[in-house]
Amino acid sequence: MSSEIVLKEFEWYLRDLFFRSNVNNSQKVIDCFNREDIIDTLLKNYLRYRNYDYDKISDLLNTVLANLHSKNVIKFEKDSNNVTLYSVFDRKQCKKCYYINYLSINEKIQCSRCNSAEIQEFPSRKI
Ligand SMILES: [Zn+2]
Q1: Whole-prediction pTM value?
Q2: What is the pLDDT along the chain (127 residues), one digit of tens a residue?
Q3: Could you tell me the distance, in angstroms and rounded to a whole number, from the CA of residue 97 to the centre of ligand 1?
Q4: How far apart are CA 121 and CA 123, in angstroms?
Q5: Rounded to the nearest whole angstrom, what is the distance from the C-alpha of residue 123 to the centroid of ligand 1?
Q6: Engineering a disulfide at 22: which of 15, 41, 88, 113 sits with its beta carbon 3.0 to 4.6 angstroms away?
Q7: How many Å lie between the centroid of ligand 1 and the Cα of residue 61?
Q8: Are 31 and 22 in contact (CB under 8 A)?
Q9: How many Å lie between the centroid of ligand 1 and the Cα of residue 119?
Q10: What's the longest Cα–Cα distance across the chain?
Q11: What top-level class would CATH report for the domain 4-85?
């Protein structure tokens, strides 16, 4: 069993990974991800998880994906190891606590740390 804090942190990194994959490819929106690729990317590109073993990451991933599925953020593909996002993520910063949130189109615009609804694009647009 993983603690709530560990899962919440993992979810943040997973949303970060999705967000970065969505925007890195300006030609085409990437919204379908293979579970094995997600785990590989976390182990390779995320310092936080570099020393984790594959099975531990896989357990965290399964728990958090089930959670995101229940929030209508992702869909599971039948008969495959793939997950699909309902929408690309918006990156927004809370005006109150400065937390960075990655939000799907199906989620309430609200800070997941302090619940404030006052969040803005990050980085904020220069006028
Ligand atoms: Zn906040």
Answers
A1: 0.90
A2: 579 999 999 999 999 999 988 765 566 778 899 999 999 999 999 999 999 999 999 999 999 999 999 999 999 988 889 999 999 899 999 999 999 999 999 999 999 999 999 999 888 766 5
A3: 4
A4: 6
A5: 15
A6: 88
A7: 24
A8: yes
A9: 8
A10: 48
A11: mainly alpha
